[in-house]
């Protein structure tokens, strides 16, 4: 860990706790800052805040008093989930107080270089693949961000002969200043999180921030099949490394005659890859590019791709019961992600879908329901999804109370050879705290069938 001096005796406000806030507050305290933590949860219900109080850090809990901003803070480190329209954040910006996220702190103290991965879909799978490939290639990687340990916690332990592989959200990337990964990946960009960002333009710019500070000594890996990501590539000074499943690329990763190539070098046959889905092939190409740029040999890359079957909750194979294959894709919190999951299967699918109603319809998913023999819906969007199912001509449509009840109903409607797929196309928050909780409930319900 770099012993930086820039925060010594600086007044810093950490806004919002959770894991990133706790890590940021503790780190800044170690670096000699005068830290104040402000969290909305009352102190009596807030063990994280209590722990920081025991370290000698000033803690204010129960609300976000706007008058705090008049106490002379020189920096605010905010929880990524707090939107910029929050009065505390907008008030800080009006006062000229810089606002960053914890990822920026991690970069400032890290002795290890970063491989940063972002995009609307595929971040977690790509991040995991890159980490596994570097691990197989004995490159001593560490994993951080949304998928693993908080970045500033990992960075404190990282050495200069390691690499931090980090999944980055648009929320995190809006709060960077000097953050500069050695290798960055942009998987794709679609409409998402507009309730947070307000406009598509702001969302796209947040994603583009991953390459904002890169130079020609760094690498930007991007989806050459998508107009928007290709346009963002033109804005960075990094060395460009495209990937494509549609065309051959002399300077990137691509598919030709059933084989994966990187810069003209054959890596492996597509048919030997364990992970299903054309969308995952895009993730694989991005990961292969990052691995090759990190001097991982082809044997290590093949070793990973022949056994890696998916990340938990991301088109995760769960179990085969009496010829029925169960897949958990609880991470599919939007229509696009669910559509890609459906496209991964040729077998008849029984789809379990539903969740938080964000006001959108589901007409866009209708073309992807052609191989769905039965639709089981739940949650706030149950009726809307049933309407989409009828538009697709699905003969069997049933509504149930929740995911747990959906599993035995789906099994009862299935036959050997069918795929039973949880791919909700919606966020989980109407019924479950997180998509992980929703996915775990699905997994447990599947195991109960045995």
TrEMBL record:
GO terms for biological process: cell division; cell wall organization; peptidoglycan biosynthetic process; regulation of cell shape. GO terms for molecular function: ATP binding; UDP-N-acetylmuramoylalanine-D-glutamate ligase activity. It is an enzyme of class 6 (ligase). It holds the Pfam family Mur_ligase_C. Its EC number is 6.3.2.9. SUPFAM superfamilies: MurCD N-terminal domain, MurD-like peptide ligases, catalytic domain, MurD-like peptide ligases, peptide-binding domain. ATP binds at residues 119-125. Keywords: ATP-binding, Cell cycle, Cell division, Cell shape, Cell wall biogenesis/degradation, Cytoplasm, Ligase, Nucleotide-binding, Peptidoglycan synthesis. Pathway: Cell wall biogenesis; peptidoglycan biosynthesis. It catalyses: UDP-N-acetyl-alpha-D-muramoyl-L-alanine + D-glutamate + ATP = UDP-N-acetyl-alpha-D-muramoyl-L-alanyl-D-glutamate + ADP + phosphate + H(+). It is found in: Cytoplasm. GO terms for cellular component: cytoplasm. Residues 117-291 form the Mur ligase central domain. Residues 313-426 form the Mur ligase C-terminal domain. It comes from the Bacteria. Belongs to the MurCDEF family. Cell wall formation. Catalyzes the addition of glutamate to the nucleotide precursor UDP-N-acetylmuramoyl-L-alanine (UMA). PANTHER family: UDP-N-ACETYLMURAMOYLALANINE--D-GLUTAMATE LIGASE. This is UDP-N-acetylmuramoylalanine--D-glutamate ligase.
